[in-house]
Specification:
The protein is an alpha/beta fold. Helix content is about 40%, strand content about 15%. The longest helix has 18 residues. Bound molecules: zinc ion (ZN).
């Protein structure tokens, strides 16, 4: 079985056909889905999907860096309250995004750091979103990393030096999605040198669909395209990729499979 460690199936892009989207993924043996929240406005839809598929869908709580605006204190208070309810499997997604808007950089840095502190206090993993902000992300994580900090650098698109820096933190996995299948991304060459034990799979649906769906709406069933590409890069079977990336995801999210009687 596979785990989609990062998918936004609760967004409006799926409101017309979520049940067939779920079915297609489960038929392709993607059995578990971690849903990072964006902000207060997406929370109710996320929880609606959790109620519908409680065995498959796992909610995370966090404030996305692109939603850090003037009202971020209000948003952070919401994250804090929800995280303490014990219903959530991690703090995400959080991080820094300088692609769209740089005007809230200091608020993004502060929100990121405070949510890291919250995750450490509650012993939850963090899911890091990093877009055009590796230096800024590393600066915050360098200052807060210790044995209590762990999680996933989601949608990794960096180089080998950046991958090794993430691995050297000790508690982090690298999340691979559709970009791995893009021609000329160069990510395949980087990942050839990163051992499988550090990798998890994700789609980031509805964004960043893998080849041959590039440019279309992404969905969790397309995780297999990413897994197949990884199997090819590593020269192993698809089953081996499933086994090790699922183990890695279970380790991060502390998921204990129910043992057969
Ligand atoms: Zn995301």
């Amino acid at each position: 079985m596979f785990v989609d460690t990062h998918t936004h199936l609760f967004l409006e892009q799926f409101s017309d056909d979520i049940d067939t989207v779920m079915l297609r993924a489960i038929e392709r043996d993607i059995q578990r889905f971690y849903l990072p929240n964006i902000d207060i406005s997406t929370f109710d839809d996320m929880m609606g999907l959790v109620r519908k598929y409680p065995d498959n869908v796992m909610p995370l709580i966090g404030l996305h860096p692109c939603s850090v605006k003037e009202n971020y204190e209000h948003e952070l208070a919401f994250v804090d309250e929800k995280a303490r309810s014990g219903e959530f499997f991690g703090i995400g997604e959080i991080g820094i995004d300088l692609y769209w808007d740089k005007s809230f950089l200091s608020a993004q840095q502060e929100s990121f750091a405070r949510q890291i502190e919250l995750a450490k206090e509650l012993a939850l993993p963090i899911i890091i979103h990093c877009r055009e902000a590796f230096d800024e992300i590393f600066e915050v994580v360098d200052g807060l990393n210790d044995d209590a900090l762990f999680g996933i650098f989601h949608c990794f698109t960096g180089d080998l030096a950046q991958a090794n820096r993430i691995i050297d933190y000790g508690g982090f996995k690298i999340g691979l999605g559709g970009v791995l299948t893009f021609k000329n991304s160069g990510l395949d060459k980087t990942i050839a040198d990163v051992p499988l034990e550090h990798l998890v799979l994700e789609t980031d649906a509805p964004y960043l669909a893998p080849v041959p769906y590039r440019g279309k709406r992404n969905e969790s069933s397309y995780l297999i395209e990413v897994a197949s590409k990884l199997a090819k890069i590593k020269g192993v079977t698809l089953e081996r990729v499933a086994e090790i990336t699922t183990d890695n995801a279970n380790e991060v999210f502390k998921f204990e499979a129910t043992k057969p009687q």
